[in-house]
């Protein structure tokens, strides 16, 4: 039977987003989430996770985005701009890295702080992934491997999918590195090209496309609330509420069951 992990990124982005994720788990097919520690609602919503013991929880490691690092700019100077903030996207991060401006020790300090912040709340971690999938970059992999060992995490996301796009290639390389390091990962990943638009029809298509020969599959998603003024600062053009509705859909739940897929978390990988 194929293990299907349905993981929501960006827990902590806003309070309404975090609550929508929990609702999709309690009343839908969502099985896992990844916590974005630098986000504004992390501190106010991380404690809610204790009430959902069957929800798998990972850390959505961040080196880019709209929010500042967990550590001060003085502690991780190579990771921030003149205003003490992360670069907004992976493209800016890549440009700085290509010029030798990113200090790997700063990276390790910041990402360690993010993991420790979640563990300090008593949350047992099932996996590691990252904002804009930066953890799959070959130059960052040694840090990720050390972090997984220190945190006691046995699984990482790898964005293996069909096609020969850059992210698929990075995902395949990351999967090979994970295997050599003794880390677990899913056999395939779905939802990358649907990021922010994984509505019920698209979710049903993904479920139908999962091959019975696959041992494990992750579907990545981004559910949120219908009304959320705190989300206005994130100009991502995502269909947050529509994704949440799809994850709570009875039709989706029935399709998963009829396809013979077993819902689970990264903790169920073998």
Q: For this structure, what is the CATH class?
A: Alpha Beta
Q: Please tell me the total number of domains.
A: 1
Q: Could you spell the SSE succession in H and E letters?
A: EHEHEHHEHHEHEHHE
Largest sheet: 7 strands, parallel
Strand and helix map with partners:
Layout: E1 2-11, H1 15-26, E2 32-35, H2 42-45, E3 56-61, H3 90-98, H4 104-119, E4 127-130, H5 141-151, H6 166-181, E5 188-190, H7 200-209, E6 216-221, H8 240-247, H9 250-258, E7 261-263
Helix pairs in contact: 1-8, 4-5, 7-9
Folded structure, characterized:
- The chain has 270 residues and is α/β, with parallel strands linked by helices.
- The chain has a single domain (2-268), classed as Alpha-Beta Barrel (TIM Barrel), CATH 3.20.20.370.
- Helices cover 35% and strands 13% of the residues.
- The chain has nine helices and seven strands, in the order E-H-E-H-E-H-H-E-H-H-E-H-E-H-H-E.
- Strands 1, 2, 3, 4, 5, 6 and 7 form a seven-stranded parallel β-sheet that branches.
- Helix 1 (15-26) packs parallel to helix 8 and helix 7 (200-209) packs parallel to helix 9.
- 44% of the residues are buried.
- The model has no long low-confidence stretch (mean pLDDT 93).
Keywords:
globular, TIM Barrel, alpha/beta, 35% helix, 9 helices, 270 residues
């Amino acid at each position: 039977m194929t293990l299907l992990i349905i993981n929501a990124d960006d827990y902590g982005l806003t309070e309404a987003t975090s609550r929508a994720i929990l609702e999709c788990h309690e009343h839908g097919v969502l099985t896992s989430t990844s916590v974005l520690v630098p986000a504004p609602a992390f501190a106010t919503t991380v404690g809610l996770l204790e009430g959902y013991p069957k929800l798998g929880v990972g850390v959505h490691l961040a080196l880019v985005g709209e929010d500042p690092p967990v550590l001060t700019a003085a502690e991780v100077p190579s990771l921030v701009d003149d205003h003490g903030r992360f670069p907004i996207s992976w493209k800016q991060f890549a440009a700085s890295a290509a010029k030798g401006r990113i200090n790997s020790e700063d990276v390790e300090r910041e990402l360690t702080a993010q993991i420790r912040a979640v563990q300090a709340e008593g949350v047992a971690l099932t996996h590691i992934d990252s904002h804009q999938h930066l953890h799959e970059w070959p130059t960052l992999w040694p840090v990720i491997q050390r972090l997984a060992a220190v945190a006691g995490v046995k699984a990482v996301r790898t964005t293996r999918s069909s096609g020969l796009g850059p992210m698929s290639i990075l995902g395949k390389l990351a999967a090979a590195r994970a295997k050599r390091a003794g880390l677990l990962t899913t056999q395939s990943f779905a939802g990358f090209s649907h990021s922010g638009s994984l509505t019920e029809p698209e979710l049903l298509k993904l479920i139908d496309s999962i091959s019975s020969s696959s041992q494990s599959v992750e579907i990545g998603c981004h559910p949120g609330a219908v009304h959320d003024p705190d989300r206005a600062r994130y100009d991502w053009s995502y269909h947050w509420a529509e994704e949440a509705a799809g994850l709570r859909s009875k039709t989706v739940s029935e399709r998963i069951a009829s396809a013979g897929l077993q819902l689970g978390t990264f903790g169920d990988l073998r």
